[in-house]
Structures are given as structure tokens and as C-alpha cells.
Amino acid sequence: MPRWKELPAQLGEEERQLLVQLRRLKDHSGLSLASLGAKTSYSGSSWERYLNGKKPVPRAAVEELAQVCGADPTRLLVLHEVARAADGPGEPRDGGAGAVGPAAAAGPVTRASEPPGPPGPPGPAAAAPPGVRTVRLRSALAGLALAVAVAFTGGLLAGQAFTGDEGDTGRGVFSYAQKRTYTCEDGRADGVRYAGYATTATAILDRGSSGWEVVEAQCLLRAHGFGAGKVDGAYGDGTKAAVKRFQRARDLVADGIVGPDTWGALRK
């Protein structure tokens, strides 16, 4: 496997950690850049630019890379969101050259192209689409980037990402695995508490739920002193009972269901 070029020194730490994980995923798959170009809607030369830090990698490219490598994109997309939030206003955003939009999905797959020419004179500001993040959330994610970088430094996010070892208690980057115990972090960004597994404040969780959101909720419950036993991402009777105790202590409806109100209290 050819050695990777050293990433540009001017890259932010958040972008650097994202590219390190994308490179590892690509290397683990055994796919060449040309193979990625054949299997995705981005050319091999585009992948070379993305993975060597010459251009910001689009969100859609992160999803496609995970798909062709057989990995869950959830953790990578969290890293991507943190990296883009850390860019700040005016920096290149998602959907750069090579991204395939909904209209293109029905037609032939197109290759990534070079960036278009210089833009014309600025026109009137367009209204922000409903899905655009607020400035407050971008600020929170930028703060969360520091916690993510620290976790990588300690090997918590990167460690044992591909081993599939059921005894590993570190947090795998690419997929949530059942019957594993996860390590909790207790960090804050812009006054919002995070455990490092999910940024949601709206997901509805109840008995039978599983995944990163449940891991996040279990960690936050533990941080507030309402531990539910193992932090395994499985929403069982123990977690439901802990949620009820927490809700009663916070004067919330004690139904044992984690919704927006309970998330709001957990994030404090």
C-alpha cells in the first residue's frame, strides 16, 4: 500500500482527524483511489485531493466511502460535521465539486469535476434553507471538536476501529456493536453537555431502542448521577428505570421515554 502524503500543515485539527479516519478506512478496504473512482460518484483524482487535504471532502463523499467499504457512516459524519463547523463562515462547505444531488440520482452517475470558475458579482442574500444549522449550534459543535480531538489523542475513537473484538471497551469509529461496554466522556461545548457519541437533542428513545443515541443518553444519565448499569447502547429496563428517576428529579413527566424535554435536561 503506497504511503500517504503528509497532510498540509494549515489544516485544522478537526479536519486532520477526519482525514486520518477516512484514510484508515480506505486502506483497510484495500481499494485504490482508482477503485474508489469506479465505485463512487467521485473520480479517483477527486479522492486524491480530498484524502490529501487539498480540498474539503463533501459530506456525500464521506457517506459513499463508508458505503463501499462496508462501514457505518455515523461516527464519520459526526467528525465531518465538527470539522465543517470549525471552518467558520466563508470557508468551503459541503456539496463541493463531484457531489451528486437528488436530481442527478435518476440519471447516469457523474464524475467529480474541477471547481467552476470565479463567481460573478454577489447578488442579494438568499434565505437560509430550513435545514441550515444555527450559529449557536455551529458554536457548540466547534467546542465539541476539541473534545473529539482529545478523545482521538487518547485513542478512544480511533482505537480498535476494525478489530471487531467484542472485549474492546473503546468506542469504535465506524459502527455501533451490541454487547459491548462503552467509555463515557463528560465534556461541554457552549454550555451544552456531551458524552461524545451523539449530538441529538430530539431523538425519541424507549425500551427496545439501541445505538449511539442510547449510549449518549446512558452516559449523560451517569454524569448526572443516575447510572443505569452498563453503558452498552441497549435501552432495557435498567435504562428506563434510570430515566424515570432522572425525570422525577427534574420535575419532568416520568414516563421513562427520552424525548426533547429529557434531552434538554440531560444536556445541562
What fraction of residues sit in β-strands? under 5%
Q: In order across it, which strands form the biggest sheet?
A: 1-2
Q: How do the SSEs run, as a string of H and E? A: HHHHHHHEEHHH
Kindly state the number of beta strands.
2
Residue share in helix: 40-55%
Question: What is the global morphology?
Answer: elongated
The number of helical elements comes to: 10
Structural class by secondary-structure content: mainly alpha
**Straight-line N-to-C gap:** 46 Å
Query: In this structure, how is the largest beta sheet organized?
Result: 2 strands, antiparallel
- Rg from alpha-carbon coordinates: 20 Å
Spans where pLDDT lies below 50 across 5 or more residues:
90-115, 131-135, 148-174
Mean pLDDT: 74
Structure, described:
The protein has 268 residues and is an all-alpha fold. A two-stranded antiparallel ribbon has the order 1-2. Helices cover 41% and strands 2% of the residues. β1 and β2 form a beta hairpin. α2 (33-39) packs across α3 and α4 runs antiparallel to α5 (74-87). The protein is built from ten helices and two strands, in the order αααααααββααα. It is elongated.
